[in-house]
Please model this.
Amino acid sequence: MSDHNTISGSGPRAFTHRHQFTLIGLITVSTLIAVIAGGTWLERRTVAASGETVSIMAAEVSAKLDLLLNERVGDVQFLAESLAMNGATPAARNHILSTFYQAYPLYLWIGIVDPAGRITEATIPQARGLDVRATGWFQSVQRERAGLYVGDIAADEAGHGAETVSFTAPIVDHRRDVGRRAFRGAVTTRVSARQLEQLVTEAIRLFQQQTSFFHSVEYKVLREDGKYSDVSDKIIEGYKLLKLDGLIVIGGDGSMKIFKKLADKGKLNIVAIPKTIDNDVGATENSIGFNTAVSVATEALDNL
Model:
């Protein structure tokens, strides 16, 4: 009777087996749902957290850039005031320029422009004698008289096309010239765009160290018109000038694409080291950072 009940599917033993299979099925389905829900939540939370982190990082970079630019604005205003009050002779003007230039070597050059638009004194010989009356920065300060001009990233007139940011102020003695709208000329300074890029890179690197933000970060310095400055020709020129055998590139898929174009354009030798948590670089089994990302994600799932 006992064997008959087991084979026919009746009795307490068969009843228990059926419920065991049902319970296993329910546990499996519940586990799958939990894993899918947990993975979805983790993905959304990771994206949200990354977005929040990038926003904070962007705010910090912006604050550092604002500080740098405001300091340069203060410098050119101070120079303009000093020249207006104490720069009556060429010797006095050259002394002011050279003293300031030695104290602040971050400037590529500093120059004084006469009312006709010609650079009469400068800290580099290439700038002396240049006719700049047709430039936007000179016309702006000449028209506004008491205004200040901060230029967009552009090729430098005296620096063989180097990308720079210009700061220009009219030379005005506010004790006497403002009421008469007199224009004595202008003082102009140049800061390399590379310094701005270095500041951004250092700020991002410091932020990553402080927050353990292990994602790769890519950025571009855009001009006011929304376009970015292409310095690939300068990189190629520097590569050949230094007579390098090759460049070692460490980065992800985006970095590799950029340097592939650069290598094709300049006939450069490139050694590529993949470093990305996405592990999406072709012909690569495991990139630097991928195992760390997998470990962190696995640990987060185990803790659900």
Q: What stands out?
A: The first helix runs from residue 2 to 7.
